[in-house]
Amino acid sequence: MLESLVYVLTNFPLLLKGVWIAVLITVCSMLLGMVLGIAVAFLRIYGKKPVRKAVSVYEWIFRGLPQLVMLFIVYFGLPELGLNLGPFLSVVLALGLCSSAYQAQIYRGAILSIGSEQMEAGLSLGMTKTQTLFHIILPQAVRLSLPGFTNEFTIVLKDSPLAYAVGITEILKYGRDLIVTSFRPFEIYLACALIYFVLFQLFFYLFKYVAGRYTVPGFLINE
């Protein structure tokens, strides 16, 4: 037992080298998902009927696809069409597209909770519909969506080990390299799990704190 603990502690810095890649994949995927998710949410609410149907199909498809399958489609399938994104961009695109479908639901609920009277108030002040959306509705919707965004961020963080499947050297890949040479799968995988657990807790409480600080007056953010 002591020998296993010493081995894990000795190689822990190597596993930590993959933390930066895991966090970078998560942040980039979430940013892509946020941009697409906000656009989809607006189109679902304010778009014409054919557009609402189209984005509804978009959500249906990307909520139904497993992330690993989506990753293989992007990484192995797109090169056959002449588009080779490389491992990192393939992971970000795959996770971002899948996340966008879930984030769209979060932002749509936040926008609908604001109420149509604020859109009417903006229009009555001479603002265009687009100006009202970006200057009045969107800032409040983003703040209201923080609890849901926190949950989605932690989910994408836990999906980031899928990058190992296309050869990206993140936490799990470093762990696998150690297992090949040491034949200690239990200790190494347990150490990897501990790192992901700590990352999960750090980001969960960070975003929970941010959500509490930026609560929209008159709205209750659930714990």
Largest sheet: none
CATH domain class: Mainly Alpha
**What's the shape?**
elongated
Mean pLDDT: 84
SSE pattern, N- to C-terminal: HHHHHHHHHH
User: Which homologous superfamily in CATH is the superfamily?
Assistant: MetI-like
The parts where pLDDT drops under 50 for at least 5 residues are none
Number of helices: 10
**Number of structurally distinct domains:** 1
Structural class, from helix and strand content? mainly alpha
Instruction: Return Rg in Å.
Output: 21 Å
Secondary-structure arrangement, i.e. CATH architecture: Orthogonal Bundle
Strand content: under 5%
Residue share in helix: over 70%
The tally of beta strands, per DSSP, is 0
N- to C-terminal separation?
Answer: 39 Å
